[in-house]
Write a structure and sequence with these properties.
This is Putative amino acid permease YhdG. The protein is mainly alpha-helical. Helix content is 68%, strand content 0%. The protein has one domain: Amino acid/polyamine transporter I (Up-down Bundle), CATH 1.20.1740.
């Protein structure tokens, strides 16, 4: 049994049409909002403070560097997504180009990305929600239910109740169907974009150019270090590709959704980080890194706008969790349909036409991780998983151009092999900027994946059964 047996593109498309199918209800507009829903959240409302402490006002450059890495990867995703309009994102593409073993590795890698991203954002959401509760009603939860064990020095915390509950609410919404999830996402995305535009309109009036000097206090190392951190801000646009099987016209709309959402968010990130570091000295963010955008507004006396920003942050993080968990369930669904995971995870609900069991299984795990694991332990692991996925999808484009040069491609990556190679270089470079402990944890996660593959997946694979 070959480790590198492949599913043809025809096989992948045909397998998506067998049995109970997912509901096709998404357009280019929905996919763009899905992408923005996934991208604008923790990155713009939380990580801008931590990034500013690493790069200073040059945080704008850090966002551009991270955005370039994503742009090159997005072009590669767009080619695959239009060619193989099937659930599973880069896992599915790898199955067609690099073989089953690599597909399993990348699928397992994506579990790390999406599951931990959902948990990470739930922790940030909890912080903003508790701040809003206190500000509006003067109500505070008992310390024991405000954070994970050991997350807050000097406080006896045991369980992050708001983080746990919000993931359960999102799981319920996703289990009910894509139409309901789409409507909720679209409304919240429009609200949070309006909040970001409000910050830009008000904040630009308080910019002091002196705060941008020196522009690069920590040199290029600071810029690159911050880029590796704020890369988390872009995670999620690739979840758009996971929606292929539920898109009305995937060949046309998937590339548009991927590229439009990434372009809009990059512009907003650069503008917001520039205004924020111009409003107050960047060192001020050391006081509180959990809500830097609100902090900048409070320092300039714009408390009423800060309240709206808190609301926008809650909306923003809610949509991020919604899209991340959605992407995770669809990848689990695809891996189960291929026999690499138990068949139970690819069962489609008779009424809602969603992978109901997989959705609740993953939702409960994400909720428990968010409730019990501190934030700083999660974010970098998500980054390394995503960068590895981007590297493989870029490599996959090169392989497919060589092995299947004549296949019809509704969308083609321009300037091949330059763009895929640049994507690989940017992603690998950002991976080298991550801490050693992150690499160790990543290797442990992959080792667990190898045990599952050789212990279960290899012999239960649909291709293995056919052999």
């Amino acid at each position: 049994m070959s480790l590198f047996r492949k599913k043809s593109i025809n096989q992948l498309i045909q397998s998506s049409k067998k049995g109970k199918t997912l509901k096709k209800d998404l357009t280019a507009w929905d996919l763009t909002l899905l992408g923005i829903g996934a991208i604008i959240g923790t990155g713009i409302f939380v990580l801008t403070g931590t990034g500013a402490l690493k790069a200073g006002p040059a945080l704008t450059l850090s966002f551009i560097v991270a955005g370039l890495a994503c742009a090159f990867a997005a072009l590669c995703y767009a080619e695959f997504a239009s060619l193989v309009p099937v659930s599973g994102s880069v896992y599915t593409y790898s199955y067609a180009t690099l073989g089953e073993f690599v597909a399993w590795i990348i699928g397992w890698d994506l579990v790390l990305e999406y599951l931990l991203a959902t948990s990470t954002v739930s922790v940030g959401w909890s912080g903003y929600f508790q701040s809003l509760l206190k500000g509006l009603f003067g109500f505070e939860l008992p310390d024991a239910l405000t954070a994970a064990p050991g997350a807050v020095p000097g406080k006896a915390t045991f369980f992050n109740l708001p983080a746990f509950l919000i993931v359960l609410v999102i799981t319920f919404l996703l289990a009910r169907g894509i139409t309901e999830s789409k409507r909720a996402n679209n409304i919240m995305v429009i609200i949070k974009i309006l909040v970001v535009l409000l910050f830009i309109f008000v904040g630009v009036q308080y910019v002091k150019p002196a705060n941008w000097t020196p522009y690069m206090p920590f040199g290029y190392q600071g810029v690159f270090s911050a880029a590796a951190l704020v890369f988390f801000a872009y995670i999620g646009f690739d979840a758009v590709a996971a929606a292929a099987e539920e898109t009305k016209n995937p060949q046309r709309d998937l590339p548009r959704g991927l590229l439009y959402s990434l372009g809009i968010c990059t512009v907003l990130y650069v503008v917001v980080s520039g205004i924020m570091t111009g409003m107050v000295p960047f060192k001020l963010f050391a006081q509180d890194q959990s809500h830097p955008v609100s902090l900048a507004l409070v320092q300039t006396g714009q408390n009423w706008v800060a309240g709206f920003v808190d609301l926008g942050a809650i909306m923003g993080m809610t949509t991020v969790m919604l899209v991340m968990l959605y992407g995770q369930t669809r990848i689990f669904f695809a891996m189960s349909r291929d026999g690499l995971l138990p068949k139970k995870f690819s069962d489609v609900h008779e009424k809602y036409r969603t992978p109901y069991g997989a959705t609740w299984f993953l939702g409960l795990i994400a909720a428990l991780i968010g409730a019990l694991v501190p934030l700083d332990k999660l974010a970098e692991l998500v980054n390394i998983g995503t960068l590895a996925a981007f590297t493989l999808v870029s490599f996959g484009v090169l392989v497919l151009r060589k092995t299947m040069p004549d296949v019809k491609r509704p969308f083609k990556v321009p300037a091949v092999p330059v763009v895929p190679i640049l994507s690989i270089i940017f992603c690998v470079f950002l991976m080298t900027q991550l801490a050693a402990i992150t690499w160790i944890a990543f290797v442990i996660w992959l080792t667990i994946g190898l045990v599952i593959y050789f212990g279960y997946s290899r012999k239960h694979s649909v291709l293995s059964q056919a052999e």
